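User: Could you check the structure of this?
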Amino acid sequence: MTDLRSVFVGALLVAAVLSIGVAVYALRNRRNRQDRLTTVLAVMMAVTCAWSVGSLGAHLSASATATWFWFGLINVATFALPVSWIVFAAHYANYDRHVTRRTIGLLAVVPALTFLTMVTNGFHGWFLADARFVSERALIAYTTGWVYDLHLIYAYILILAGIALIGHVAYTSRRVYRKQAIAIAAAVVVPLLANVHYVRMGGPESVNWTPVAFAITGVAIAAAIFRYRLLEIVPVARESVVETMRDGVIVLDEQRRIVDVNATAERMLEGPNPGADLIGASAKQVRLGTETVESIVETGRDELAIERAGTTQHVAIRSEPITTGSDATLVMIQDETYRREHERELERTNARLDEFASVVSHDLRNPLNIAAGYLDMLETSVDEDERETLDVIRTQHDRMQAIIDDALTLAREGSAVDETETLSLEAVAREAWDGVDTGAATLTVVDDRSLEADRNRLLRALENLFRNCVEHAGPTVSVAVGSSDEGFYVVDDGPGIPPDERERVFDSGYSTGTDGTGFGLSIVTQIADAHGWTVECSERGRNRDGACFEFSLRNSTDRLGPALAQKQ
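Assistant: Sure, the predicted structure tokens are below.
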């Protein structure tokens, strides 16, 4: 064996060992059975190994039968390799949705037909126009047929298309992704150039260095795995990590290393070395405020206050797996400083409004009380005929007093409920009924249910509803209270509310009577909103023909918290 042949055989052996080693490593490090990228990589490297082994066997064998067998294995590998490569490139470039069984089947049509013509070549000579075993040199001398040449062109197209996909990833990605893509592209470009040189400059009796070049392919793929963590870091999440996003985004791999981070998150994070690249850094070493990213993810921390340069930044944090069953994690960081400041300003504004309402009501009640006192004095000094005029004045005084009370209530009931207790609907309804001048009206509690609510506010809401029923349905109205699937209801047997007025009745100041203030049902809405409930005037139902007010408690989960929702 000449020195050159010894080098050639040794290179083939190295290529085979490296290729099968990468294939085994890929299979053993699959995240799950649906991890297509590593599966296709293993297939591609196994095919690479088959080509190297076939070339090795062909150069070491002396018999015609063995040489023809190894020659056939080489060709089968060249049929499968371009298809496995383009499928691998598509998965790596995040075109998984296009890689279906149908797509792979269509890609395999040309190789399958080429294989068929190779097996039946003795009948037509389409694959090899002439082929013979040269015993003196123990090799196959051949002249290619048109099918062989057609498949060669097809294989080059697939390989170049795959390189284009990887190149696009290298061009559009950054940092470790770019290094990955360059390593993979180099792994394929080198044997491609070697094969082009063999086809153009060599011949069947020349040494085909293409499988030897696959030794470089194995090294490049191995470098992508061990140095750039190909099987752990793939750009599947990059399209979701947009540099212009206002929220911070961090992508962690299964070993809790940062594999991607956008500009917003970079401004919030502090790495182990100031100014150093965060890509590839352990989440244990990167901090968000006083907490490490790893502790935030593992403890499920959902908010954090970051002290920086004398200011406090409030952030909301959400961590979740990138895909179901995967340990890779997507961490979203939302700056809520402005919202917190807005909430505090709103609280201050509400406090000022409450103070203003109290002052105004006090300043209005004083002159009103004085006027009422003088009115009482006049009653003792006027004739009986003039008392009717005084009654009108007294009625208007009472109306002004009611407007002041309702306006003050309206200003105070809009704030969210902070503390609640478990209440009985029946008990609160009967207490509210007793607190209203209902005359001959009657109350029926159809059934009871427990509610998580502010007792005083719920009382005020029911009192306003009962008062509304008596004022608009008459002193002998029959009112019913009961539970529903979504909450509870209040209904009467009066004339009801016309459909075109059912939404307007909740507007502040809206009233169909001359004595009402128009604030009663608006206050009911405010109290419902403060609890996280909704209230609406529904169609006539509940076996009654009057007005029906339905309260839905379904929205209260967000406002009152999970514990309250469970109690309900």
